[in-house]
From TrEMBL:
GO cellular component terms given for this protein: membrane
Any matching Pfam family: Ion_trans
Protein name listed in UniProt: BUB1 mitotic checkpoint serine/threonine kinase
Cellular localisation: Membrane
Ion transport domain span: 31-252, 375-621
InterPro entries per record: Ion_trans_dom, Volt_channel_dom_sf
Transmembrane segments: 27-46, 52-72, 93-112, 154-173, 222-250, 372-390, 396-418, 430-448, 491-516, 591-618
Membrane-protein topology: Multi-pass membrane protein
Organism per entry: Anser brachyrhynchus
Keyword annotations from UniProtKB, A to Z: Membrane, Transmembrane, Transmembrane helix
A molecular-function term among this protein's GO annotations: monoatomic ion channel activity
């Protein structure tokens, strides 16, 4: 919604343009685009080598359909974008090139297939381009820009790290190479320089510790000092240095991106005001009728009452027009999530007013509203946790489960009795829904399991597993009762959208490496059942793996024979534990796995950790020192207007009506929070830098004081 508001400068009297613009940004069109992007990526599951094989004709027709949709979406975008802007945009060129390459590769592969000539689908590696470069994926593009901007600094640290690794490898060759030591498998120990480099690189990840040290340590305890020094320098110092460099550059470039967005939005709102303004005396303003038309155009989904609330805030003195300062804040008002509540009396108050309003009923409801009621049930949950840990077969423990279930059901019924049901089960009442669903699901599963055990000899382990899981899930309820836990949970909820961005980033990297891995290593390893009599079953179908750690560890299912298996192997490599055992093959395989480790673990995981650090620093700093200035004033004005309208429609003389509530004073994403920090420093009357100056802003340029202070870092 904020994006639509910040694009107000596009308001030109062209009805066809409006239709195309809103059609392009409609949620159905966006959802359809994502559907075809992921459909195109998922074709790798059905193409050779396939998890679920489909005929080549079927997969090729689906791919052509996806490419046609992408081309149509790109054409649609060209219709609502100035021609000179469209052709200067790199992402549009990338999409067109990817479509052309995919069609060319598909035609060549199909033609060669007709003549039974084996070839590879080299264009499949380009499929993630569609996920990155469509307009809907701007967050993923920003993440890739962060990687690109961080690479120069990382490169210097990586070169220094490699120098250290090579130096330690050379020392290891001189120290141990002539000692005729052997590994536990009877292989030569540290006699080949390249093998030493690889083993010590693995040691940096701690995956082969202490195994790699033991032959030298057994020979002389003093040699342990070499490995201790290596781990301190390379694992603890250099890996921490990688995180420090990534975090520092990520933070710097993130704030530069956010500053550009803040200036861009402010500039566009000023230009939109200049397009719509009229003169009221000596003051330029936007008339109320035109303002309403504008809000209805950019936010067609909000209700009329919500629109009236926004007008009350923007024109608090009821002058019939909106000044420049209030107009510039329109995008921020639209970005505040407002809940519209209908004031209703409790149904029991209408059906049984004498009983519901009696002294006993009022005492019962006041007891449920009291904080002591929450504390009592927190204590019950903790006692329940002790019983869950005890032996289920003990009769008293089994009976106690029914007692706890009864107590939880009584709690739900008392709350529904006290609070209006439609409010209690509102769409924003997550914990109420969670409690109710968990309790009644546990009740249903417990009754079903007890019935089956008492009437038949049937004993379903699956039902028992569900019952145990539901019992444990009840303990999560206590999270909402402790303030510090709530802060952490709120932070996690706020960073979920950006976590999804890094999920998309990981998906892109996984897809590229999975496709490369399938082309390089497909068929080299086979999985056989435990009792298989097939030749080389114990060697994973490859005689070269005889007596290897890979075969003896029964890692045969870790292969690149299809897309799903490739993803699992890459996930195991991301965790890095035992990744050197999963690795099998010659030097090309080692280079492949090291490249994945550098890209995924050293760069992307560190960027993800950097984001988590920044998010928690910002959240915790705001928890102690909330944001001041225009942002706080905006929320106060919203609350004042809410109370004004509540007085009109929520008084005792008129119990039915509408009340508006702010869903949360916290921002839904860290990006939005940082953007508001920058905007708080921009005077509403200041038009700010030009578009060209905004695009050329340097990360080293001075920023608002909020972000250069210790609070924001």
């Amino acid at each position: 919604m904020a994006e639509a508001a910040s694009e107000l400068l596009l308001m030109v009297p062209l009805p066809s343009f409006y239709r195309l613009y809103y059609l392009y940004n409609h949620w159905i069109m966006r959802t359809a685009t994502y559907f075809f992007i992921f459909l195109n990526l998922s074709l790798a599951v059905f193409e050779e080598p396939a998890v679920y094989p489909l005929p080549f004709l079927a997969t090729s027709l689906v791919e052509v359909l996806c490419l046609l949709v992408f081309f149509g979406r790109l054409t649609h975008f060209a219709k609502i974008t100035p021609r000179n802007v469209f052709w200067k945009d790199t992402k549009n060129i990338c999409i067109m090139v990817a479509i052309l390459l995919s069609l060319t590769d598909l035609a060549i592969y199909g033609a060669l297939r007709i003549y039974n000539i084996k070839s590879i689908r080299w264009s499949r590696i380009a499929r993630p381009i569609f996920l990155i470069n469509f307009a809907e994926s701007r967050q993923i593009r920003r993440a890739f820009r962060s990687i690109r901007n961080t690479l120069p600094e990382i490169t210097y640290v990586f070169l220094l790290f490699m120098f250290s690794l090579l130096m330690f490898s050379l020392m290891a060759l001189k120290l141990f190479g002539e000692r005729n030591l052997q590994t536990a498998e009877g292989l030569p120990y540290f006699r080949n320089y390249l093998e030493i480099v690889f083993d010590l690189y693995v040691l940096v990840t701690t995956a082969n510790s202490p195994d790699v040290m033991m032959p030298a340590f057994d020979f002389s305890s003093w040699y342990a000092l070499f490995f201790i020094a290596f781990v301190i320098v390379n694992t603890y110092i250099f890996m921490s240095l990688f995180l420090a460099v990534v975090y520092n550059n990520y933070k710097k470039h993130l704030k530069n991106e956010i500053r550009k967005l803040a200036y861009m939005k402010h500039r566009k709102m000023i230009e939109a005001f200049n397009l719509l303004k009229e003169e009221e005396g000596a003051q330029p303003v936007v008339r109320e009728a035109r303002w309403k038309q504008l809000v209805k155009l950019v936010a067609p989904d909000i209700s009329n009452s919500h629109r009236e609330l926004l007008l009350r805030i923007s024109d608090d003195e009821q002058k019939g027009f909106i000044d420049k300062k209030s107009f510039v804040q329109l995008a921020d008002l639209l970005n505040i999530q407002v809940i519209t509540l209908k004031i209703r009396s409790h149904p029991l108050g209408q059906w049984m007013p004498r009983v519901y309003k009696s002294a006993v009923s009022q005492f019962l409801r006041s007891m449920v509203r009291h904080r002591g009621f929450v504390w009592t049930y927190d204590a019950i949950i903790l006692i329940n946790a002790i019983f869950i840990a005890l032996d289920e077969e003990t009769p008293y423990i089994s009976y106690a489960e029914w007692v706890f279930l009864a107590l939880y059901i009584i709690e739900i019924l008392l709350k529904v009795y006290t609070y209006e049901p439609r409010v209690f089960f509102g769409k924003n009442q997550f914990w109420n829904w969670f409690d109710t669903l968990i309790i009644f699901a546990a009740l249903t599963a417990t009754i079903l399991n007890t019935t089956l055990r008492s009437t038949t000899k049937y004993n379903s382990q699956q039902i028992l597993d569900i019952v145990f899981i539901l019992r444990v899930l009840r303990l999560i309820r206590i999270v909402d009762s402790i303030q510090r836990f709530r802060v952490i949970m709120n932070t996690l909820i706020n960073i979920v959208p950006t976590m999804l961005t890094f999920g998309g980033l990981t998906l892109v990297v996984y897809c590229i490496f999975a496709i490369i891995g399938m082309e390089l290593f497909h068929g080299k390893i086979q999985f056989f059942p435990v009792n298989s009599n097939a030749p080389y079953a114990l060697e994973c179908g490859n005689p070269a793996l005889k007596d290897s750690l890979f075969a003896r560890g029964k890692y045969c299912k870790n292969n690149f024979n299809n897309f799903a298996s490739s993803f699992i192997v890459l996930m195991e490599l991301t965790v890095v534990n035992q990744w050197h055992d999963i690795l099998c093959g010659g030097r090309p395989a080692k280079l492949y796995f090291i490249a994945f480790h550098i890209v995924m673990v050293i760069i992307i995981v560190n960027i993800f950790v950097s984001f988590i650090l920044e998010a928690f620093f910002v959240e915790y700093s705001l928890e102690k020192t909330p944001l001041k200035g225009s942002d706080e004033q905006l929320l106060d004005n919203m609350e004042s207007a809410e109370h004004d309208l509540e007085g009109e429609v929520g008084t005792k003389t008129q119990p039915r009506g509408l009340v508006f509530k702010i869903a949360s004073k916290r921002y839904r994403t860290v990006d939005a929070l940082l953007q508001r920090m920058f905007e708080a420093e921009i005077p509403p009357e200041d038009e700010g830098p030009s578009f060209e100056e905004i695009l050329n802003l340097s990360p080293t340029a001075a920023g608002p004081s909020h972000l250069t202070s210790e609070r924001a870092v």
